[in-house]
Write a structure and sequence with these properties.
Elements: E1 2-6, H1 13-26, E2 31-34, H2 44-57, H3 71-95, E3 100-103, H4 108-118, H5 122-126, E4 137-142, H6 145-151, H7 157-160, H8 170-192, E5 195-198, H9 205-217, H10 227-241
């Protein structure tokens, strides 16, 4: 079962994902944290290809201030990465269907940023990720961008919005850019029934994790809506938006 923790850059996705996996384990559940950028099949050939793709997507040398390759170039690379992740989780499910996998994000933020940058419709963007793993539960860590900015000492060029035309003061550019990303994620969350954690009223990490665990243990069961429900919501989202997100 897959739980994805979503949010803007700096929302705390990785930190909460790790803490949630540990807390679930401590409560008696079988749970593991999965870094979406660090997948391993235990196969030399497959893992070698993933290593090459990882360096292309998240270069160890850092990012330039501008991109000359365009949105669709990276969309195809990211589609390949998340297709591999989908294959990874399908293999895990056949081996142990009772384990909860907690991942720090999914492809939804990719869609939000690509929509902002290129204007490609949401439905068309989702078409790039048909082979990706669909989370059984998505938790949106909702946070004001200025609060996210204060949490970290450094952000990448893409996180500040430089590749999307946001210039000037880094903090102002970050907040303006991430606010637009946030609006799209919130719209997606409302349409698809995500769990939303309002971090303006829930500051303590332990409180956030306990809140998520209580949700998992509640009337939604161990992993949120079933796959048929997810598929219906996805179809409804496409119909309702006519391929776009109204809030942006």
């Amino acid at each position: 079962m897959l739980i994805a923790i979503e949010g803007i850059d700096g929302a705390g996705k990785t930190h909460i994902s790790r803490k949630l996996a540990r807390a679930l384990t401590a409560s008696g559940r079988r749970a593991v944290y999965v870094d979406k950028k660090d997948l391993s099949f235990g196969d030399r050939f497959a893992d070698g290809r993933l290593a090459l793709l990882k360096e292309a997507l998240w270069p160890s040398s850092g990012e330039p201030r501008q991109d000359l390759l365009g949105t669709r170039f990276y969309l195809h690379l990211l589609a390949a990465w998340f297709a591999a992740a989908g294959q990874y989780f399908r293999r895990q499910a056949t081996r142990d269907s009772d384990t909860l996998h907690v991942m720090d994000g999914s492809y939804f933020r990719v869609i939000a940023k690509a929509h902002l940058r290129s204007g490609i419709e949401i439905a068309a963007l989702r078409g790039f990720f048909t082979e990706a793993a669909e989370p059984d539960l998505v938790v949106l860590l909702d946070l004001e961008p200025h609060m996210a900015w204060a949490r970290r000492s450094a952000f990448k060029e893409t996180e500040i919005g430089r590749w999307d035309g946001f210039t000037g003061d880094p903090q102002e550019a970050f907040c303006a850019y991430q606010q637009q990303v946030r609006q799209i994620l919130r719209a997606l969350g409302e349409q698809q029934g995500w769990m939303v954690v309002d971090q303006s009223t829930m500051h303590n990490d332990t409180e956030i994790v306990d809140h998520i665990i209580a949700h998992i243990a509640g009337d939604r069961g161990a992993c949120g809506p079933d796959r048929d429900t997810q598929n219906r919501r996805t179809a409804a989202t496409r119909d309702a938006t006519n391929g776009g997100i109204g809030t942006c």
